[in-house]
Each structure stands twice: as C-alpha cells, then as structure tokens.
Amino acid sequence: MAPRLKLFLPLLIFVVLAGFLYRGLSLDPMALPSALIDKPLPAFTLTALADGRELSREDVIGEPALFNVWATWCISCRAEHPYLQRLADSGVPIYGINYKDEDEAARRWLRELGDPYRANIVDREGTLGVDLGVYGAPETYLVDAAGVIRYRHVGVVDDRVWRDTLEPIWREVLAMGQQP
Amino acid sequence: MKVRLLSLCALLLLTVHSGAVIETYEFSTPALEARYQLLSEELRCPKCQNQNIADSNAPISQDLRRLLHQQLEAGASDEEILEFMVARYGEFVRYRPAFNAATAVLWLAPLILLLAGVAGLLLILRGRRDGAASLTEDDQAQLAALLQTPEKDA
Fold first, then answer.
1. Residue, of B103 and A120, whose pLDDT is higher
2. For residues A144 and A38, is the Cβ–Cβ distance under 8 A?
3. Chain A residue closest in CA terms to B90
4. Torsion angle of alpha carbons B22, B49, A137, A79, nearest 10°?
5. Which of A130, B8, B32, B59 is the most exposed place for a label (fewest CB within 10 A)?
6. A36 contacts on B by Cβ (under 8 Å)
7. Structural domain tally of chain A?
C-alpha cells in the first residue's frame, strides 16, 4: 500500500465504525424478533376470568382479534388501558390474557377501569405466556381469522403504535377474511 | 435504650436475609442436576438480556427454570429442551445459537478477524524485511561514507 494511502487508514476505520454506531442509535436493543409470527396461536385450556368456565383455543379464534397480555401488577398496562377501551369501542375484538395475576384484583381492575375485553383468559402460572414467548406485560398479539399470529407488539399500545404498525396489518387481516 | 438499640440491630440482621432468593429444585439423579446447571447457564433471560436464567430473578426466568426442571425430570433430551425454548423465544434465548444463515456472521467473525490480523501482521513483517534490503547503491555508498566519518563529539 502506498504510504500516502496508508495515512487515510485511520479515517477509513473511523468512518466504518461511525457507520455502525450511527445505525446502532436507531436500534432498540430490547426489541426481540418474535419466534411465533405466522405460527398458530398455541393451544390451551384455561379458565375465564368472569365466570370460571373453561376456555380453549377454539373458543377465541374464528375472527381476527387482538390478544392483550396484562396484569394488575403491570404499571404500563394501566397506562395502556384507556386506549384498549377506545379500540374496543371502535369495534376491534380484544381478548385479555390475565398474566400471573390474582383473579380478584383483576376483576376489581375491570370494574373500576372498564372492561375492553371480549373475555379474559386466566393464565395464573404463565403457561400460555411461555407458549406465546411472553417475557413481560403488556404484550399484544394480532391473530387472524384462522388463528395465526400475524404480529406481536411488546409494550404499550397507544395511538401511534396502532396507526403506524398495528392498524395496517389489522386492515390486511380483515380484508383477507372478507375474500371468498 | 441499650436494649432498644440491640433489638433494632437484631431486626436489621433479620431483614438482610430476606432479599432475593432463587428457588432450589430436587432432582432424582445428580446427572439431571448437572444438566440443569449447564442448561440454565446456557439459556438467556429474555427480559434481562445480559443474564442467563440461572442468575436472573425476573419472573420469566423463574418460569423457565421451573419448566427446565419439569422437562428434565420428564426425561427430555438437551436438544428437545433447547428446541422448546427456541420455538417460543427465538434463537436469542441461547447463548450459543445454532449455526445458520442469520448467525453465520456471529460465529465466523472471530475467525475472520483473526485471519485478517495474521494477514496484516505478515504484510507488515514482510514490508520491514524488504525495506532493510532495498537500499540502492547510492544509499549504500552514502551509508558507508557516514559510517566512516569520525564522530566529532567522540
């Protein structure tokens, strides 16, 4: 290598490094790819929060819906709750997965804050959570009419998340269901 | 007063031990326990990303440890258990992910960097040797003249 070019080597290394670091600024290290995208919603047999009757996978699939993992110990879930209520009011079916919680506390929460859920699946031991790859609440899964998981959002669903990420997939899933 | 102080100290001593406790499991054979240790150190906590599930206190790690214990006692092989975890949490959950297209860079980067380093070193060493031998005749004559000039300071 010519000596003149050698002088530019540190600059070259700097540019490459800066390129990687710049990319790193816009990456979220907590965001993990979900292993369950395009896989069927796992089978389960658990109880319903409202009346304790048995709920299984077949009871909750059949039309596109959101599955929201929540718990009364989860502070972000409280922040998310009003937005879920708005979504439910606008006609989006939402099923709750009450994750590692106490039934009585969960029922009180729904009485006090309103109940946006079609039904709540009680996952006290977190078994359905493990099958879904849940690692914290809130998480929201978008499931299509065939019971296939189409998207997973980790964290609070708010107006921006819904408009930018979830709603486009939601519309796609709805359109797919209306085709003969 | 003294009694009160003493009882306060005793109380503080008691509370020190009530901190984080990681549960223990009973295993039917020592071999299972050894595999439990190995696997729990190799599985990564999805919530607290720089800890394995053996070190982590996160609820999700407790769940995964419990599952690990159940599956080991039920006779699952290491591969089956890792498959189970990867199916739910992705390759991320393994500290030593399987070799595939997505992880090839991760596995091969150290080797490539090592080879690049060795190649660079060889280039530099060769450059040095060539440099020593590449004096022109003029240079040689100049060098000889310089060496023969008596130093003034001496």
1. A120
2. no
3. A35
4. 120
5. B8
6. 88
7. 1
